[in-house]
Specification:
By secondary structure, this protein is α/β, with parallel strands linked by helices. The chain is built from 11 helices and 9 strands. It is elongated and about 60 Å long. Bound molecules: nicotinamide-adenine-dinucleotide.
Length: about 270
């Protein structure tokens, strides 16, 4: 099932196997990355490198040092992305994860979703137990006092935006930049629930950014059945039990409907 060029249609067997395991699971943990929102029109970092902002390398802009050196460019880039996230809609992959959580809740099971995405689309699709490992681009905070605000769905009036909390201070997006610590509560939850899950899904992530890239190994070493959903191979592909090669918006609804019955992918 680890064939690197195949698609979901070539691997009905892997899909059935994964669905059987999912249908029996009492606890499911999911980690998602930028690929989960790609079909909502939000570019992954790789896509960003081919866009209007292609001359801006996220690895260089998403740092406290970049904000200190050039707050105008950094806040303009983040505000452009913030407005894109607000305009986007959840896709069928987001919907399938919300449905999966509901199925587990209906039978007294447990579900936890750890996302590296900052777009809030999982919550808008109905997912409830969501941990934002990298914060949210929809919230901004005072870079000096830490007070958090949710700006209106229009661009800021000035760049860099001034903080309303302290004269002379600036607002920054409430996201985790390279070199910054991840939210403690989310990490604590991950270390607690991942070793207990029966099925672990890694979805639309390049599996290169730690610690999220390591969750699949924690789950696997503790005996969970592991599934990757990604359109391309990643470093995790060879370490999981089943690779479902295809887009998140296509594969996840199929998987959840195979596991729990008709309705999710509209195909009965
Ligand atoms: N939507 C967002 O919030 C967003 C967008 C861009 C970047 N980021 C940030 O980028 C960092 C990069 O890590 P990452 O692993 O999340 O993203 P990444 O951009 O490094 O990798 C995206 C992964 O998704 C896969 N993919 C792309 N489209 C897909 C689709 N339709 N279906 C299935 N798979 C698909 C790619 O093959 C790749 O493996 C994260 O820290 C995240 O915070 C977030």
């Amino acid at each position: 099932m680890n064939d690197e060029s195949s698609t979901i249609e070539d691997h009905v067997e892997g899909l059935e196997h994964a669905a059987r395991r999912l249908s029996r699971a009492a606890c499911v943990v999911v980690v998602t990355g930028a690929g989960a929102s790609a079909e909502s029109g939000i570019p992954t970092f790789r896509d960003t490198m081919q866009s209007l902002w292609k001359e801006f390398d996220p690895q260089k802009l998403a740092t406290p040092e970049a904000f200190d050196a050039n707050p105008e460019v950094v806040t303009r880039w983040y505000d452009h992305r913030r407005l894109g996230c607000l305009a986007a809609q959840p896709n069928p992959g987001h919907g399938a994860l919300a449905t999966l959580e509901q199925h587990l809740a209906d039978r007294g099971g447990e579900f936890a979703l750890f996302t590296q995405n900052v777009d809030r689309l999982h919550q808008r699709a109905g997912s409830r137990r969501v941990y934002e490992l990298h914060g949210s681009i929809l919230e901004w905070r005072c870079a000096s006092t830490g007070h958090v605000i949710t700006p209106p769905p229009t661009p800021f009036e000035a760049f860099p935006p001034p903080s309303p909390f302290q004269p002379g201070a600036l607002l920054r997006p409430n996201v985790v930049w390279f070199g910054e610590a991840l939210p403690e509560e989310a990490l604590r939850a991950a270390w607690e629930v991942t070793p207990r899950c029966d099925v672990f899904l890694t979805v639309g992530t390049s599996s290169q950014v730690y610690p999220a890239a390591g969750f699949v190994d924690i789950a696997s070493q503790a005996g969970a059945f592991t599934i990757e959903v990604n359109k391309d191979p990643t470093p995790a592909s060879r370490r999981v039990d089943v690779v479902l090669r295809g887009t998140v918006g296509r594969v996840l609804p199929l998987l959840v409907s195979r596991a729990f019955g008709p309705g999710v992918d509209g195909q009965g």
